[in-house]
Structure formats: C-alpha cells, structure tokens
Design a protein that fits this description.
Chain A: Belongs to the NifD/NifK/NifE/NifN family. The complex is a heterodimer of chains A (452) and B (461). Chain A has 452 residues and is an alpha/beta fold. Chain A is built from 17 helices and 14 strands. A 6-stranded mixed sheet of chain A has the order 1-12-11-10-13-14, with helices on both faces. A 4-stranded parallel sheet of chain A has the order 3-2-4-5, with helices on both faces. A 4-stranded parallel sheet of chain A has the order 7-6-8-9, with helices on both faces. In chain A, helix 11 packs antiparallel against helix 12 and helix 12 (284-312) runs parallel beside helix 17 (418-433). Chain B is built from 17 helices and 14 strands. At the A-B interface, helix 1, helix 2, strand 3, helix 3 and helix 4 of A face strand 1, helix 2, strand 3, helix 3 and helix 4 of B.
C-alpha cells in the first residue's frame, strides 16, 4: 500500500488482519485530494428534499449553485426545493454584514412562494462575518407566521457529518410543533431516505401492504406538516445511519420513540428491515402479511439476479460511497451476485461501522476511510477490480482504468432500494461489467499508475 | 418547479434565483488545469474544493484533480497559514506536481490570509522543492463570477512566469503568438491551435486544457495527463510577437499582464465563434505573419455554403442567449449573421461593458433586445414568458426554461451537465460554426417536424 499518505495510515486496514480500529471521522489532511465535502454540504443534502419548504442559501453564489437540483430527490407534489435561492453576498455585505439582505430575500420569497417553512443555510463566510441569522429568522418568522429555521452549517465546522447534525437540529425544531391526532399505533417515520429516483415510494408501498402507516418522510418527498407531527409515530426507521441516527436518538430521548436501523438495499437487508418492523409491532397478522410480501417480491427478483450472476460470478468489486451502512449492504448485494468485494470505503463511517465491515468482508479486503483518487486508483489496479461502485468523482477514474462503474450516489436514475432495486442493481452492474466497450478499452496498463 | 416563475418582472435587489453564474474559485481551478503537471489547490474548506471538482467532473466527464487546505474552525479564527504550509508539503511529497496553483475562497479571503507571504514562508522552510512552483490567484467568491476567477488565474500564469526576452525570433522562424483562449472547451483550444498552426504559426496557448480534460482512455489513471501549457512555454511568453486575448472578460487581463511584464503587445479579440469573429481572428493572425492556406479558405467556403443552404430556416427566428459574457457576445453576433433576432441576451456577470458590446454587435437591431448584465435564469424565464422566442441557447440550466415554455434548446457554454460529447466537439472556427449551426438547425427543424399536422409533415425541408 505504497500510495497511502503516512498521516492516513490509520484510516486504511484489511479485513482479518486483527489490527486496531480504523481511524475515522477526521478532517482530510490539508493538501490531500480528498473526495469529501463540508458541513454545509451535509446539511444541504439532508434537508433539501423537503419539497414544500424554502431553502435559502445565505452566502456567496457558489454554494447555492453547486447544490442546485443536484441530488435528484423526487417529490410527488410541490417542487419548491428544486429552485436555487441565494442571498448572493457581495463584497459590501462581507464588510457591512448581510442581515438586511437576508431579511429582504426571505420576505420576498415567502410572499411569492408561500412555503410551509423556510430553511436558511449559514455558509462559512457568514459564520466569519457574524450575521445574527437566528435573530433575522425569528423576526421573519414572527412577521410571516411560518417557521424560519437557521441551519448552522458553516463549511469549516468540519466534514459532512457535522452538517448532518446541523440538519437534524433544524428538523428537531420542526418536529413536535404539529398535532399528532389520528396517528395509529402501527406508525413509523422514515429517516435518512432521500427519495433518489423515487426510492422512498417503493418502501412506502411495502409498508402500506404490511399495514404500517407512514407519518413523515425525513426527508425524501418530505412535507413540513408531516415532519411537524413526526413525534406522534410509534417507531423511527433509520436508513442512512450516518445522517439521521442522531435525530432518532434525540427523538427517543425527547418523545420516547424507539428506532431501528434498517437498510433497504439488497434482498437480505430489505427483508430483514421489513421483518424487524413487523416484529416490533408484535402483530401476527402483520408478520404473516410481511412473509407473503417478501416471498412474492423475492420470487420476482431472483430470476433476474440468477441470470446476471452467471456472468458476474467471481468478478471483483471496489466500493467507495458516502455512508458506511450503504457500503455494508453493497458488500452483501454483490455477494448475492457472486462477486467478491476487494475494497470497501466510505466518507463518513464511524468506528463501529468499520468494525462491522471487517467482520463481514472476506479476509484481505481493503477497508478505507476518506480515501483519495491516487489511493483508490492504485487499489483498483492492484486488486484487479472489475467494478467500481461510487459517486460522481469516481466514475471517470474507474473508466480511465478500464473498470466498469455503478453510481450509488446522487446521480441515480433508477431506484436501488427495495427488492425491485436489487433487480435494478443486478442489471446495472451486469450491463456495465459486461459492456462490449471493455474489449476496446485497455485496462490496468501499469500496476502502479500514479507516481508516488 | 416549472410553475414557480411569475410573469410579472419586479425589481429584485437582494436575491438571486437560479443563478446564471457561479463563484470565482471554480474558474481558477479550470484555468489551472490547463497548465501541464499542475495541481490546483483550493485554500479554504474542503467543501468548496469538492464542489468545484464535482461540477467540473460532471461537465467534462474526466477526472478533475485538486487539493484543499481543509479548513477547520481553528483556521477560520487564527488564519490558514498552518493549513497552507501543511497542505503544500503534503502536495509536493505525495502528488509531485510541477506547479501548484493556489486559489483562495470566500473564507480565506475574508479572514485575510496573505498567500504570497505564506508561500514565501514555505519557500524559506524548504517545503517547495527546487524547480517547482507555487502560483496563486485571489478569487473571493463575493466579487465577480467564475469567469473572473478564470481570468485571475490566467493573470497569475503571466505574473509568475512572463519575463522580458531580448532574443526575439529570427526572420526565418515561424511567426509566434501567445493566445489566451478564454473559457472554452478543451476541443476548442485544440481547434484554435490547429487553425493557428495551419497558418504556419507557432502558438503558446495558456491555459490549454486540451489533453487534460478530454484525455483518452488508456487503461491507467494519470494525475497529470499529457496536455497543458508547460512552465517553459510560460517562461517564454516574452518571445512572441503578440498576445491575442480571445474574449474581453476571460482573457484580456492576462494579455495585459504579459504586455506589462514582457513587453509583448496585446490584442483583444472576440471569441472566434461564428463567421465574423473567426474572420477577424484569422485576419489578426495574418497580420501577425500567418498565411491563410487554401484548406482554411475552403473551410470558410463550406461554412458560407451551409449558411446559404439554411438561411431560410433561420431568418427572423427569435432567439434567447444566456451564459458567460464572452460566449454570449460571440453567439449574439453569430445569430445575427444567421438572420435571427436575438430578443433576450443575458449574462450573470456584472458590467455595463457587456450591454455596450452587445448593443454594438446588434447595431440597428439593438433597440428591440433585452440586454441584461448581472441577470439570473429566473429573470431570463420571466423575459421569455413576456416575449417568447423560437430558440434558446445556453448552458444546461436552460433546460428548465426550455421545458416550461416548450422551447427548442441548444446547449452551449458551461456547464453542460446532462449531455456528453460537448468537450470533443468544437464551436470555434469555421468548422465549429457549422457544428453549432447544425445543432441549432436540428433543434428548430425537429420542432417543426414534431408540431406539423399530418398534411404538413413533409419529407424534404
Ligand atoms: S464557500 Fe464560497 S468559495 Fe466555497 S463554494 Fe461556496 S461560494 Fe464558492
């Protein structure tokens, strides 16, 4: 592992080598070509899918542009979240403060769009010039009668994870403000699902068939009114563990709502999630319905998986995604396709996640936290991977090496969640790994492609 | 989201909705990638760098490398010096670039980090290896736009490397020009070079992203693909007879810098998009010693032939154009020359010069045109609602308007996030004009075919 920065050695390990816990949740080393984002980014991705809220980025123009409709979080109704609003701070505001501008912007937008709530994202520079966003928000909220919630997401606070916390704090201010009347006892909130490619709709459909009521989506296809009554639900389901576990814990403390960590990727994890819910509600009929549902769905998906597996058996994969929970499901899903995971990494995993990964993966699998392109490309070549599962910045990297790719991040157009998602995943991996293009594309032309 | 735009335009002073531009650092990053073996370096929070890399990756579909100072709370209070020193040391020991191009961000600008001073410190501390360079550009995101950032990094290239050179080329040497190509695709930079060399000239393009951001698939990942202007070339900027700045906004300042430092006269031209601007570009090259070969003359002839064949389809069609100022100006002229009527012309950059220039390009047609500097896509949408057009030219973000108003739409400019191939095709030169014109024609005629009632749906158009 020659390409690992010495200061990063603790962030790389191999399954089965019995060494100490992986070091994680630290800022990227200054000067590294990190694949990671900042606090603002973390809070923005979590909150942005709330479709009937106004999302105003308080700062210079850039932050708003780079997060404008990037995530592909679909809404079944309002689509206010897909517009990009920015206070577009200029030099004079940096000198004299941007509070007036923020207030004017909020007033104008609320008047025009009548949102159910407004989120104000505080970017790094606002943190430095010291605008009192809290005060402005309070004032505008009083004048307009809607919740105006500041999101303390100064970029320099840390990594994405701190942004998740800021987002959860903002959500907590909304939760508990609505009436819980009429919420049944078999009810849940969906936490940490952002409805990429309409994924949350698949899960909702399963839950409906089981007889479970969904109170609020946090946050894919989310609505302010639902979120405000989320404290009435009987159970919280946490899918993206990195982003919303904290929220679930806080809700447990404050409202006594228990939570379950779930994953909707892959057949095992999907079925496991549904059974877990049914067991929680201790309703034998629901359990029976769930069994039927799982059996029916799996029977539809298995033929697809089998067909793809024939070609994929024995191929090697690398995974580098945002959340560690997703990485765990991916290892299992790839196994189902007969593939071996040679490298698995995440940007936001914690020590517990990595411990779990080490136990799960075959001995020798490389496990990394917060990697960078030269590291990744070297591993990819050394491990002779046939597939890379990653995000936007990893795609061209894989292609240059002649390695197939599957996007498991913002740029999804087909749902990967649910049983159906496993079929999509199988087809997509199959399509990329078996694409005729690889017969023309040279692969791994040198073992150590980066001069280090 | 498409029904959120009201028709009535009201004056907005505090707010940007659906911006038509973005912040300076990303422009600096793009320019820096046009130096051979250069690692762009973003001095600020890791988020900025990550966003800029993602955005550029989405456009170019190629790996975009850049390092970050990875600011923490401490840095934002006590200054970023330790981060930059540590960062430079990491970069030189790990990634081994020949040059590091530092750009600031809104954060490091606001806390007031003095980059030259810190780099000086790095020099003293021996962090910068012999024969390696660190250049920098100040790119506060609360002033200017991504185009300003691009321009600032081009200036930095001249500032750090250009020097007076006594020994001018001999009469027998090829005529030599520097070209600042502006914010165009790698393919455009390649085309500009091809044209110049076809005239028997030698050209130093800076920046030059050809080969960097449209690099071939080779089976390995290269941190520094083969393209880009080399340090040696930059150090020899002073040898050229002239520096041609293509585009006032993205390129002029760098040409001035070369003139001031190395006494090479500058000439500011429009981006050679369309027939008129390409003519002027070639005229200028000829004046500087180039000889226009028959092959290029024939290219022009083919373009004219194309326009003759298509003029009836373009004539009097209304068009809206949005994007970076240099592109928009050139596109406006091209549309005018095709016989179209540019009804709305908008850029996100600030400056009366834009309005003046577009007015001048449109001549007697200017009175009927909405020219907007410092506009956003929301405003453009409103303008189009109030006065519809037949065609929209702009970057990817125009797709929302195109869909809402059911408009034919041609993607041109930056960024293009939802199509592939734009970084291989060209829009500059005569060949580029045919490619672009043909895309525009396709959009118009596809529309006509789609809308035609059965009896009017014809085989030959
Ligand atoms: S924080 Fe500033 S420099 Fe960074 S992306 Fe946002 S606007 Fe641009």
């Amino acid at each position: 592992m020659t390409t690992v920065l010495s200061s990063r050695l603790g962030q790389v390990a191999r399954a089965g080598d019995g060494s100490a816990d992986i070091v994680c949740d630290k800022q990227s080393v200054a000067g590294s070509v990190s694949q990671r984002a900042c606090t603002f980014c973390g809070s923005r991705v979590v909150l942005y899918p709330i479709a009937d809220a106004l999302h105003l980025v308080h700062g210079p123009i850039g932050c708003a542009v780079y997060t404008w409709d990037i995530r592909g979080a679909l809404s079944s109704g309002p689509e206010l979240h897909r517009l990009s609003f920015s206070t577009d701070l200029r030099e004079r505001h940096v000198v004299f403060g941007g509070e007036g501008r923020l207030e004017d912007s909020l007033m104008e937008l609320i008047e025009r769009h009548h949102p159910s709530a407004a989120f104000v994202y505080v970017t790094c520079i606002v943190g430095v010039i010291g605008d009192d966003v809290e005060a402005v928000s309070r004032k505008v909220s009083e004048r307009t009668g809607i919740p105006v919630i500041p999101v303390q997401s100064e970029g320099f606070q840390g990594s994405k994870r701190q942004g998740y916390d800021a987002a959860c704090e903002a959500l907590l201010r909304l939760i508990g403000t609505g009436s819980t009347e009429g919420i049944g006892k078999h009810s849940v909130n969906l936490l940490g699902d952002f409805n990429l490619a309409g994924e949350i709709w698949i899960i909702q459909e399963y839950l409906k068939r089981m007889g479970v009521e969904v109170v609020a989506n946090l946050t894919g296809d989310g609505r302010v009114a639902d979120i405000s009554r989320a404290h009435g639900a009987a159970l919280n389901l946490v899918q993206c563990s990195g982003s919303t576990t904290q929220l679930a814990k806080d809700m447990q403390k404050k409202y006594g709502i228990p939570f379950q960590k779930v994953s909707y990727f892959g057949l095992d994890d999907m079925a496991g999630a549904l059974y877990g819910i049914a067991e929680h509600f201790k309703d034998p009929e629901m359990l029976a319905r769930t069994r039927d549902l799982v059996a029916e769905e799996i029977s539809q998906v298995l033929p697809v998986v089998e067909a793809c597996r024939k070609d994929l058996e024995g191929k090697r994969a690398a995974i580098y995604v945002g959340g560690a929970f997703k990485a765990i499901s991916l290892v299992k899903a790839l196994r189902l396709l007969g593939m071996k995971t040679a490298l698995v990494g995440s940007q936001t995993g914690n020590a517990e996640d990595y411990r779990y990964l080490r136990d799960l993966c075959d001995p020798g699998t490389i496990i990394v936290d917060d990697s960078n392109p030269s590291e990744l490309s070297t591993f990819l070549a050394e491990e002779k991977c046939d597939l890379f599962v990653g995000g936007v910045k990893e795609r061209p990297l894989a292609y240059k090496l002649g390695v197939a790719f599957c996007d498991h991040n913002h740029e999804r157009k087909l749902p990967l969640e649910g049983f159906l998602g496993m079929a999509n995943f199988a087809r997509e991996v199959h399509a990329s790994v078996c694409s005729p293009v690889w017969q023309f594309a040279p692969r791994f032309q040198s073992a150590n492609p980066v001069e280090v | 989201m498409l029904d959120h735009t009201p028709t009535q335009v009201v004056e907005r002073s505090a707010l940007r909705i659906n911006p038509a531009n973005t912040c300076q650092p990303i422009g600096a990053m793009y320019a820096a990638l046009g130096i051979h073996r250069c690692l762009p370096y973003s001095h600020g929070s890791q988020g900025c760098c990550s966003y800029h890399r993602s955005h550029l990756t989405r456009h170019f579909k190629d790996p975009v490398m850049a390092a970050t100072s990875s600011f923490t709370e401490g840095a934002s209070v006590f200054g970023g010096q330790p981060n930059l020193l540590q960062g430079l040391s990491t970069v030189f020991t790990t990634y081994k670039p020949d040059v590091v191009a530092v750009n600031t961000t809104c954060l490091s600008e606001t806390i007031g980090d003095d980059i030259p001073q810190i780099v000086g410190q790095a020099q003293t501390d021996g962090i910068i290896p012999d024969g390696k360079y660190v250049i920098h550009a100040n790119t506060p995101s609360y002033a200017g736009t991504h185009v300003t950032g691009f321009s600032n990094m081009c200036v930095a290239m001249a500032k750090y490397f250009a020097k007076p050179i006594e020994t001018k080329p001999k009469a027998t040497d090829k005529p030599w020009v520097n070209i600042v190509p502006g914010w165009v695709e790698p393919s455009d930079m390649r085309e500009i070079r091809r044209i110049t060399e076809a005239l028997g000239m030698k050209a130093t393009l800076f920046p030059d992203t050809a080969g960097v951001l449209d690099s071939p698939q080779t089976g390995h990942f290269e941190m520094y693909p083969s393209g880009g202007v080399t340090i040696e070339e930059l150090q020899n900027l002073g040898r050229a007879q002239a520096t041609l700045a293509l585009g006032q906004w993205a390129s002029r300042e760098a040409a001035i810098e070369v003139e001031n430092r190395a006494y090479v006269p500058r000439e500011v031209l429009d981006l050679p998009i369309g027939i008129g601007a390409t003519d002027r570009f070639l005229e200028c090259l000829r004046f500087r010693g180039g000889v226009i070969p028959k092959s290029i003359e024939e290219e022009r002839g083919r373009l004219v032939d194309f326009i003759v064949d298509t003029q009836q389809h373009f004539y009097n069609k209304k068009v809206a154009i949005a994007g970076d100022p240099d592109q928009v100006i050139a596109l406006t002229e091209f549309c005018r020359d095709l016989g179209m009527i540019p009804v709305h012309v908008l850029t996100g950059n600030q400056g009366k010069a834009f309005t003046r220039k577009v007015t001048q390009v449109l001549g007697d047609k200017a009175a009927g045109t909405h020219i907007e500097q410092k506009g956003d896509m929301f405003l453009l949408h409103q303008l189009i609602k109030n006065e519809p057009v037949d065609l929209l030219l702009g970057n990817t973000y125009g797709k929302y308007i195109a869909r809402a108003e059911d408009l034919p739409f041609v993607r041109v400019g930056w960024p293009i996030l939802d199509r592939v191939g734009h970084s291989y095709l060209t829009t500059v030169g005569y060949t580029g004009a045919i490619q672009l014109g043909s895309k525009m024609l396709d959009a118009l005629l596809d529309r006509r075919d789609r809308d035609a009632a059965d009896p009017k749906f014809e085989l030959v158009l």
